[in-house]
Write a structure and sequence with these properties.
Layout: H1 3-8, H2 13-19, H3 42-46, E1 54-60, H4 65-69, E2 86-87, E3 93-94, H5 111-118, H6 126-130, H7 144-152, E4 154-156, H8 167-176, H9 197-203, E5 208-213, H10 220-225, E6 243-244, H11 245-254, E7 260-265, H12 277-292, E8 300-306, E9 333-335, E10 343-345
Parallel strand pairs: 1-7, 1-8, 4-10, 5-6, 5-7
Antiparallel strand pairs: 2-3, 4-9, 8-9
Helix pairs in contact: 2-7
Length: about 350
């Protein structure tokens, strides 16, 4: 592989933001200050074969790939097939529909419901389990910023959540690579006691923080529900779980971003139904924009994903690796100067 050629194609802020310019029409604006391109040269980059010094993980709530990107124009073979339908339970079929507003009711997505939707890999139980809401889909009119990000960076078309179940098992898996046998969407803080990614990071002296994003309007319980580390006895009271959105901004401004950052959103901006998905999209626009505007951009990779499908339809049957998962496909974006531009990863 020609590293000089690869790194010489690193995406600058100017190029990335030009590609994301379409977001302005959706009311998602770009600060003019982020238009200055990075000055890092190809020679400097090739002298460091591992330029990524900052990993950021943002995990939003409850949307399947087909619900968000099934009708993305560049989804290709990963998008919703032509003439796709679901059985209606009465001998007929129903097709996906676009809702009038970026707000829907919350489909049931507990362990039994998701397994009914999955139907042993037939993927034909969405309507019969959750009704018409399960067949809602969004498109570029609702997700202009996210579609712009997909066009400027990398969209993962074949990324499955960890567990064929609800939020808590998937949040446990996100920080520990296993749900530990938990299948319910409730758990007491500090109830779990097995190794996590935090143990590995500390063992290798890798710095990390959890930043809690929002206006403080959401409940503390909701933020804890969305941060799997609060479930672990060793970590529930660790001060690194308590950083705020202001701390994120300050660390970007001061060049003190840790090596690993977990971005936790409160419920109103988590995109969890019935909250307006535009609120979460706006927050992610702000988070990504401020990263691009910082000195850390040239050495960062941000992964934006979703904990689970939330009861919304998807037509790809997940590979079954054990009794718990994998679960349904979820939208996942890789945002970095080193991500392939406009690439759909399978």
């Amino acid at each position: 592989m020609d590293l000089r050629n690869w790194f010489s194609k690193r995406q600058s802020r100017r190029r990335a933001l030009r590609n994301l310019g379409m977001m302005a029409g959706a009311g998602l604006t770009i600060d003019a200050g982020v238009l200055a391109a990075s000055k890092v040269t190809a020679t400097a980059l090739t002298s460091n074969p591992n330029p990524i010094q900052h990993i950021l993980i943002a995990c939003q709530e409850n949307h399947s790939f087909d619900n968000y990107f099934g009708y993305y124009p560049n989804a290709g073979k990963f998008g919703v097939p032509a003439n796709y339908s679901q059985p209606d339970g009465n001998g007929g079929t129903v097709t996906p529909q676009h809702p009038f507003f970026p707000i829907t009711s919350d489909p049931t997505h507990d362990w039994p419901s998701i397994h009914h939707e999955w139907d042993k890999g037939k993927m034909d139980g969405f309507y019969t389990t959750d009704g018409s809401t399960a067949l809602d889909y969004y498109d570029g009119s609702d997700l202009q910023y996210y579609y712009g990000v997909a066009g400027a960076f990398t969209l993962c078309g074949n990324y499955f959540c960890s567990v064929l179940g609800p939020t808590v098992p998937n949040r446990l898996s996100l920080v520990a690579a296993t749900c530990g046998g938990y299948t319910l969407d409730s758990i007491s803080s500090g109830a779990v006691n097995y190794p996590t990614i935090a143990d590995l990071l500390d063992a290798h002296k890798i710095t990390w923080k959890c930043y809690n994003l929002g206006l403080g309007l959401g409940s503390t319980a909701a933020l804890e529900h969305f941060n799997g580390l609060t479930c672990f006895a060793k970590w529930q009271n660790d001060p690194r779980l308590k950083f705020s959105e202001d701390d994120y901004h300050n660390d970007l401004n001061n060049g003190t971003l840790p090596q690993v950052s977990f971005l936790i959103t409160e419920d109103e901006i988590s995109e969890h139904p019935p909250f307006d998905i535009q609120w979460g999209q706006q927050k992610m626009s702000d988070v990504i924009g401020k990263l691009m505007a910082s000195s850390s951009w040239k050495s960062s990779a941000l992964f934006l994903t979703y904990d689970e499908g939330g009861g919304f339809f998807d037509h790809f049957a997940p590979p079954q690796v054990d009794a718990y998962g994998l679960g349904f496909r979820v939208p996942t974006l890789v945002i970095s100067p080193y991500a392939k531009r406009g690439y759909l990863s399978g």
